[in-house]
């Protein structure tokens, strides 16, 4: 039944685009629903969260817009995504990207 839980984190990936570090979270999400993301004790502001139009399986985070998130340091976090009063949590390790 875990495969049907919403929100649900399946996997994640980091990438560089434009001038910033991005995190793509792939899983099961409600399109158009207010989304909350937390890295341990670092709360992601709503303007750093992008859910592609109508997407049920992806959320993008602009890590350069997250206060107190050090994009120069490799570090492990518990990544939590919340929607509609429910959450899912997965281990996440940020690795700085070199250009």
Topology diagram in text:
Layout: E1 8-17, E2 20-28, E3 35-39, E4 42-43, E5 49-50, E6 58-62, E7 75-83, E8 86-94
Describe the overall structure.
Helix content is 0%, strand content 52%. The protein has 99 residues and is an all-beta fold. The N and C termini lie far apart (41 Å).
Attribute tags:
99 residues, mainly beta, 4-stranded antiparallel β-sheet, single chain
Number of strands: 8
Strand order, main sheet: write it out. 1-2-6-5
Percentage of residues assigned to helices = under 10%
Which regions contain 5 or more consecutive residues with pLDDT less than 50? none
Q: Report the structural category.
A: mainly beta
Number of helices: 0
The residue-averaged pLDDT reads 91
Main beta sheet: strand number and arrangement? 4 strands, antiparallel
Strand content: over 45%
Calculate Rg over CA atoms. Answer: 13 Å
Q: What is the N-to-C succession of helices and strands?
A: EEEEEEEE
Question: What is the terminal separation in angstroms?
Answer: 41 Å
Shape: globular
